[in-house]
Design goal:
Distance between the termini: 47 Å
Order of helices and strands: HHHHHH
Shape: globular
Radius of gyration: 19 Å
Number of helices: 6
Structural class: mainly alpha
Largest sheet: none
Number of strands: 0
Length: about 140
């Protein structure tokens, strides 16, 4: 019974994920009202680290990688971290290695946190070159 429920949950998650991807592929978030607006920006008028991510995903899915990056430069950190993490996991598992994952180090966590906070602050500075960080 438990495995049947788990299977249904996984199917619902996968179907939902691909449905959301299709929505981002089909509709441009800057032209459509079906996507949520950033609550932080709505309340403060300031950009958060995630502002522009929906438009970036739309552009990525439509093959416009550089346009997507322009909406949120920080979004490139995510695939870098995921590829590194998955690579270490797969190498350790399938090649019987014991490579230490630097993402599990507190210094790396602090470095990523500082990067995100600096990006958050600098993208709200309204003069060049920082103004190019705004979505």
């Amino acid at each position: 019974m438990v495995t049947k429920i788990n299977t249904y949950i996984i199917i619902v998650i996968v179907v939902t994920f691909f449905l959301v991807l299709w929505l981002y592929f089909r509709f441009n978030p800057s032209e459509s009202n079906i996507f949520p607006k950033c609550p932080f920006y709505s309340l403060t008028g300031l950009y958060c680290p995630g502002c522009g991510s929906q438009r970036a995903v739309h552009h990525f899915l439509n093959g416009h990688v550089f346009d997507g990056i322009k909406h949120n430069y920080l979004i490139m950190l995510l695939p870098s971290v995921l590829i590194y993490d998955w690579s270490i996991i797969l190498i350790n598992k399938y090649f019987n290695k014991n490579i230490k994952n630097i993402l599990h180090n507190s210094k790396t966590t602090y470095a990523i946190l500082i990067t995100v906070l600096l990006f958050w602050i600098l993208r709200n500075v309204n003069f060049y070159p920082f103004s190019i960080l705004a979505p």
